[in-house]
Write a structure and sequence with these properties.
mainly beta
């Protein structure tokens, strides 16, 4: 059973940066697809970014392309989401998830709150 723990959220101003971390135990993230999702108040959860195993392809939703970067440190069994040029509309709870495909995630973290003030 893979367990995921997110950290790094907080309250920042528009234009600032944050780096979220997703630390895994009970499994090796380099053998999974790892994704970041977010859910804003009153909205559905949405995909943000994902990183695959092997050749390590990355995917992003259009609204974060050029601002967010997903990466993985195999030695630390941790996936990161570097978020630059943050906007108020990025405010949400951010969740880390792991699975065997980019559309099927079996394991989820508890989430970390990101709040961006204008």
């Amino acid at each position: 059973q893979v367990q995921l723990v997110e950290s790094g959220g907080g309250l920042v101003q528009a234009g600032d940066s944050l780096r979220l971390s997703c630390a895994a135990s009970g499994g090796t993230l380099s053998t999974y697809v790892t994704g970041w999702f977010r859910q804003a108040p009153g909205k559905d959860r949405e995909f943000v970014a994902a990183i695959t195993w092997g050749r390590t392809n990355t995917y992003y939703t259009d609204s974060v392309k050029g601002r967010f970067t997903i990466s993985r440190d195999n030695a630390k069994n941790t996936v990161y989401l570097q978020m630059n040029s943050l906007r108020p509309e990025d405010t949400a709870i951010y969740y880390c998830a792991a699975g065997h495909t980019t559309i099927n995630y079996n394991y989820w973290g508890q989430g970390t709150q990101v709040t961006v003030s204008a």
